[in-house]
């Protein structure tokens, strides 16, 4: 229970905190009308929270070329790319509070073409940023009815990368959507696929736990066979036995559980995502021509 699946609630700073931390939490309350789970967890490191809140204010509430509702919609697009339900739901509320059109929340297909045009660069920035070329930027800046100004695009790209990173923080801290905090269920990152939620207190009882137990049982069985073979093969040394055991253990750990079911993301998140199968792919794969990368020198 609480804002983080990994940190006991009693250790999370509350609104009654003292000194500079209290001031930060009050600022968050006044600015956003709430103290969200990210701020509560970051309150464990007040200096970091202070920097984070300054960044959030600059990106979302201070002067800039993009209207407030579009800033929040871009945040939704970025978070949805990583299937981060916490950030999608948070900025959906913010989007409506600043006057955003509720029809846009039916999905990316209902947003204006100008915002939909960000989809390709959002997808690449989220999963394979090394594939971005100057042509992607030129296409967005090309004169036309739905073109972006350079100032608008810079702010949009900063928002996209900021929320891609923040999604990782949310997953890493086990932060749950508000409606799930009372039942101990957390956000599930889409990759690598797993059957057990990071927020589950009984994760060993899920299929992920069963897979782990199966691997242990297989490893123990192999150890037993090795011991039996040692008895049968006279003259085998302890060093040879240890070598065989290490080999068996390594092979066992390299075997992935079979038929791991992919978790189905919520429709409320997928509606903001086009080409959901697109994900990270190592750009240094052997035997393939590596895409060009920018070099400083």
TrEMBL record:
Its main location: cytoplasm. GO terms for cellular component: cytoplasm; nucleus. It holds the Pfam family PA26. Residues 181-210 are annotated as: Disordered. InterPro entries: AhpD-like, Sestrin. It is found in: Cytoplasm. GO terms for molecular function: L-leucine binding; oxidoreductase activity, acting on peroxide as acceptor. One of its GO terms (biological process) is regulation of response to reactive oxygen species. It comes from the Eukaryota. Belongs to the sestrin family. This is SESN2 protein. It comes from Eubucco bourcierii (red-headed barbet). The gene is Sesn2_0.
